[in-house]
Amino acid sequence: MESKELKAIALQYAKANELNDFIAYGSVAAAIETIDGNVYTGVSIDTACSMGFCAEHGAVAEMLKHGENKIKRVVAVTEDGNAVPPCGRCRELMTQLAQENESAIVEVENEVYVNLGSLMPYDWKKGMNRKW
After folding, report:
1. pLDDT for position 90
2. pTM for the full predicted model
3. Of 24, 25, 111, 129, which has the maximum CB count within 10 A?
4. Are 23 and 61 in contact (CB under 8 A)?
5. Which among 51, 40, 44 is positioned nearest to 18, based on CA atoms?
6. What's the average pLDDT block by block, 10 residues per block, for the chain (132 residues)?
7. Cβ(59)–Cβ(74) under 8 Å?
């Protein structure tokens, strides 16, 4: 799958909505392509008391629900179609799923791609002699 196709999938879900005075969702949507070629999506949830989560977390949950954990490519977009980089919490989550995910391609801004590992230059897991 091309990066632009994955971004178009995410963009379908990037629609800001206010559920009520306390919760808004969908201002950011993410799409993850796994190494098996499947695509999983998620949307952000923003709450008045900071209990929400990022779109990438929603996509990861969907991916795990289907028994997958290895990421080939990931993108998060705002409703205006601009790519945004994953936050530190999302970077950490995705790298903890599988060591191979460090090679996953991430669109960090429009048409700028890096591998996930480059976003984690001082990754604490590397010093732990951890078996994946």
Report:
1. 96
2. 0.91
3. 25
4. no
5. 44
6. 94 96 96 98 94 95 98 97 96 95 97 95 69 54
7. yes
Task: State residue 61 phi and psi, 5-degree precision.
Answer: -60, -45
Q: What is the pLDDT of residue 50?
A: 83
Q: Which amino acid is at 113?
A: Y
Q: How far is it, in rounded angstroms, from Cα 96 to Cα 113?
A: 20
CB 53 within 8 A of CB 21: no
Q: Using CA atoms, how far apart are residues 44 and 117, in angstroms rounded to an integer?
A: 23
Per-residue HEC secondary structure of the chain comes to CCHHHHHHHHHCCCCCEECCCCEEEEEEEEEEEECCCCEEEEEEEEECCCCCECHHHHHHHHHHHCCCCCEEEEEEEECCCCEECCCHHHHHHHHHHCHHHHHCEEEEECCEEEEHHHHCCCCHHHHHCCCC
Rounded to the nearest angstrom, the gap between the alpha carbon of residue 106 and the centroid of all alpha carbons in its chain is 8
Q: Determine the pLDDT at residue 129.
A: 58
